[in-house]
């Protein structure tokens, strides 16, 4: 019984993610989401009292996926800098394959942003998913520094951090303007080829794999 | 003549009001009524110039490019840095530009505006890089198209990063950091030594533009190219 309820909830979060991703927070309706999940509106309300609550659940799902991905990469035993490169490839892939990720960014863009100055628009309290992504990237970069992988960045640490965070955010914004996954994957690799020389010791940039890798455990798709 | 001038002024006032509303509320939540009350013009005046919300947003996007110019530089890489830094400098101060960025990078905008100003921005960057390469400013392995995409991605990313962490107050330092780190990988050592990528570059170039051409301003700001 409880298991079935859990399954229904997961289906609703998935349908919500899909709908927020495609149509945006403002245009998504709970009726459509319930229909897409194959449940009644009553069943939806049993789990989520409002669109805000569902949006929050979608973003929590996005954060959980992000944290799982970081943890998996760390457990793989690759160096922190390689994990950082891999997490940007993970982002490029999940932006196309896992609606909770683009939906989480979209909810942040639509409902977050600069503090409303106009009439108090209905704005749900949302997770700042850009902040969550920047924080994940910055943590890996710090670990890479502590592991001695970034001697070239050492002198200008703060600006190196800004550069990497900017690049990581740029992958999402450019993906949102329309680009196939294959194309985006190539751009992410080119991006790292360009950034690495300004981060690592001279001549060591070739020790890192800039292309996406799909044979490791991180390639296992995290299913619903 | 006077009438035409008034029409230009009204159009500009409407666009400025639209930019402020789009900047604050985003495209989806913005309404024509908001823009009307902000602009202080009649409904008839607004519809004389713009037939829909989409046209208003397109007008804001076009304005971004109309105002995007910087003085031409002998070094095209310097010119590119100048464009990026001036935009960062003005982004904090002018709703027209920050609204343009929000519209271009906003969710779902690709369906409405074909990616907003992003494709145009990448193409503009690529053209400057091609010319920089022809002039021998770039390292031989540099691919202008690829690099244009990366620089554009990092510029928009720096904007998001700065907005997320500091409400855009440090956007110039963030954009400068992008160029400071990437230029050594694309510019020849001789070019690199002459590039001015300081955080206040945008402010200085803007001041130069305000002083206007023909007063030796360009000479002053142009890093010497031998």
Write the layout of secondary structure elements.
The complex is a heterodimer of chains A (224) and B (226).
Chain A: H1 2-23, H2 30-37, H3 41-47, H4 51-75, H5 80-97, H6 100-111, H7 129-146, H8 151-154, H9 157-176, H10 181-195
Chain B: H1 2-29, H2 32-39, H3 43-49, H4 53-66, H5 76-91, H6 95-105, H7 109-113, H8 118-134, H9 144-166, H10 171-186, H11 189-194, H12 201-211, H13 217-221
Helix pairs in contact in B: 1-2, 1-4, 1-6, 4-6, 5-8, 5-10, 5-12, 8-9, 9-10
InterPro entries (chain B): ArpA-like, DNA-bd_HTH_TetR-type_CS, Homeodomain-like_sf, HTH-type_TetR-like_transc_reg, HTH_TetR, Tet_transcr_reg_TetR-rel_C_sf
Region (Disordered) (chain B): 204-226
Protein name (chain B): AcrR family transcriptional regulator
Note down, in words, how this protein is organized.
- The complex is a heterodimer of chains A (224) and B (226).
- With 224 residues, chain A is mainly alpha-helical.
- Chain A has a domain at 60-112 and 122-213: Orthogonal Bundle (Tetracycline Repressor, domain 2), CATH 1.10.357.10.
- Chain A has ten helices and no strands.
- Chain A has helices at 2-23, 30-37, 41-47, 51-75, 80-97, 100-111, 129-146, 151-154, 157-176, 181-195.
- The relative contact order of chain A is 0.13.
- Mean pLDDT of chain A is 87; it is low at 114-122 and 215-224.
- Chain B is mostly helical and 226 residues long.
- Chain B has 13 helices and no strands.
- In chain B, helix 4 (53-66) packs across helix 6 and helix 8 (118-134) crosses helix 9.
- The longest helix of chain B is centred in the first third of the chain and has 28 residues, at 2-29.
- The radius of gyration of chain B is 19 Å and the shape is elongated.
- Chain B starts with a helix and ends in a 5-residue tail after the last helix.
- Chains A and B meet through helix 6, helix 7, helix 9 and helix 10 of A and helix 1, helix 6, helix 9 and helix 10 of B.
- Chain A: Keywords: DNA-binding, Transcription, Transcription regulation.
- Chain A: Residues 29-48 bind DNA.
- Chain A: This is AcrR family transcriptional regulator.
